[in-house]
Amino acid sequence: MTTTQSKSDFWQQHISSWKESGLSQAAYCQQHDLKLSTFTYWRNKQNKGRRKLVPVSMPVRDAPVELALPGGIHMQLPASALEQTLPLLWRLIREQA
């Protein structure tokens, strides 16, 4: 493993194998002689670039929309406010992660 791409490929292969294995991360790393902290670093790094978007249909412009956020937070706001509110919420959630 000399280049960043080959490291990424190496870890992506292990992450895919781990997901299919049904093992815990710790058990998989122990079985494959991998350092758990390094495995976790690469798993988080590869997941970071993937946005998890959920398709939605927009209600009537001024109809109330309820958002369920991590940590049990629920917000209700008019649909017309979503365009300004969602990017701000997304940034705040990512900063907390």
UniProtKB/TrEMBL annotation:
Instruction: Kindly provide the name given to this protein in its UniProt entry.
Output: IS66 family insertion sequence element accessory protein TnpB
Q: Which organism is it from?
A: Microbulbifer halophilus
